[in-house]
Structures are given as C-alpha cells and as structure tokens.
Design a protein that fits this description.
Helix content is 38%, strand content 31%. The protein is of the alpha+beta class. Strands 1-3-2 form a 3-stranded antiparallel beta sheet. Strand 2 and strand 3 form a beta hairpin.
Length: 77
C-alpha cells in the first residue's frame, strides 16, 4: 500500500544551514530505494525545525531506505 512518511528533524546549535544541505542530499537518495517523491521543508518560525517527506509504494522500500547506509551514516552524524 502506498503512503508518505513524514520524519521530523531538529538541528542543534548553529547547524541549521549545514543540516538543511545534508538532509536535502540524503533525502534525494530515497529515489534509489523506490520512492516516488521526496521533499524537505524548513520551518519559517523555527529555523532549526525540518520535515522530511518521502512517498513509497511498498513499505519494505521505506525500511530499506531508512536502514540503508546513507541514512544510517546521516543519523550517526
């Protein structure tokens, strides 16, 4: 069943701009795992709050993306 996953993120310190760049890069890799679309939104009210969206037809593709090496590395950083 198709669905969109929304992942809230919050950057700490003065890392908002760097975090936005890095999140945008790793979000794009979702397409390699079967995502039909992705987006990254930055809050206008709180410049450190972000939302990552990714649409997948198959939930297993989402799990492969979330547990893939790109996302594991990103979350570790």
């Amino acid at each position: 069943m198709a669905g969109t996953v929304i992942v809230p993120w919050y950057a700490t310190g003065f890392r908002g701009d760097t975090f936005e760049r890095d999140l945008s890069e790793v979000a794009a890799t979702a397409l390699r795992y079967g995502a039909t679309s992705y987006a990254v939104y930055r809050s206008r009210d709180d410049k450190y709050r972000f939302q990552q969206l990714a649409s997948f037809v198959d939930h297993a593709d989402w799990e492969r993306y979330w547990d893939g090496p790109e996302m594991v590395y990103f979350r570790a950083q």
